[in-house]
Amino acid sequence: MSRLTITAVRLTPILVSDPPLLNTQGVHQPYTPRLVVEVETADGVTGLGETYGDTTYLRLARPLADALPGHRVSDLNALFALAERVCGDAPPATGAATLDVGGQRGVLTADKLRLSVVSAFEVACLDALGRTLGLPVHALLGGKVRDSVDYSAYLFHRWARHPDGVPCEPDDWGAALDPAGIVTQARRFAREHGFTSFKLKGGVFEPDREIAAVLALAEAFPGMPLRLDPNGAWSVETSLYVAGRLRGVLQYLEDPATGTDAMARVSAGTDVPLATNMCVTTVPEIRDAFTRDAVQIVLSDHHYWGGLHRTRELAAVCRAFGVGLSMHSNTHLGISLAAMTQVAATVPHLDYACDSHYPWQREDVITTRTRFRDGRVTVSDTPGLGVELDHERLAVLHGRWLDESTYGHYRDRDDAAAMRAADPGWQAPSVPRW
Ligand SMILES: O=C([O-])C(=O)C[C@H](O)[C@@H](O)C(=O)[O-]
Ligand SMILES: [Mg+2]
Q1: Is the CB of 104 under 6 A from ligand 1?
Q2: How many domains does the chain have?
Q3: Coiled coil located at which positions (predicted)?
């Protein structure tokens, strides 16, 4: 047996606390599901990966975890074929056939769901391989081209706390429901983490209110890059209105309208660059969007593109088409931040600061929290990803996941359902909302 042979795979679903961040579909649940993957080799080395933890992903991850022992952590290309063979075509657990109701990351095809699972195994294999060879993950991807990766502050309209009666872990951020609140939030992000670019999650209030928030940010942080992302909540006309009002203010406008067709129409009517993590999220979506110039920037996401090698492949396609590259984030922990940073360090034309929800996450499963300095994360040169699992914390967060009577309904992220705790009649708005 090779020292690289996988001898065991552990899957640990967890529930992680999340603040009441608002988006166009509703509000974040007080706890969000994540899955931690540990891959152990014959050498006794363990590699770590992290991905979405909703029931659908767990259903796909279990057969892959069962099938993996006996394979080598270096056989990454074979991982995809293995997953295709053993995972099956699990349909979305929610029954929402094509669109993601939680993370707002575009279509939810069987391929994309499976790749979102495979990504955590690929990262865990790379971590184990790097630890075995004494090389950082970026070296396994060809080597870093930068020593630190730039991240952008991810601003949200939010409530001070989750609705009464809902179990939660309170924080001290307070509410941010108007332009002044958003600027206060941005100042704290800049003070605590040194961020020098800002993204505002939009699609929550009428467009004029969100335009006012962006203009207030422009006044508070002159010259700093600003982005607005309503997750496809606007019509083409509204998108063009907002683009006109924020021309020269925004670095880019992200997913103003839903779908490649609408994005192409917006793109044709404005010179404000358009970015997406919703209409280009799978390989089959690339050609149409790029040939129609529907987007000028793609937000990669190693989770749903299938891992770090696939992220680099996406980067190559973007380069070929002259499309810029940034990075998307959903609620994630330190393992994924390490993976994002390792791959981002290897992509020369990653010209935009990456998104990260990490500053909102006060719970983690790694022993030492990753810090942003001047908005940047230092690229670790330690073998593997450069993070260690905190087994005690993992057990606590897994214990929450196991406690079905208190937390069972948070095992699947559903922002519209979370909103109903405050507004019982709430339904995720149909698009375009404005
Ligand atoms: O850039 C994005 O579209 C996201 O980050 C999607 C996320 O789901 C975000 O909207 C959220 O978590 O509310
Ligand atoms: Mg987005």
Answers
A1: yes
A2: 2
A3: none
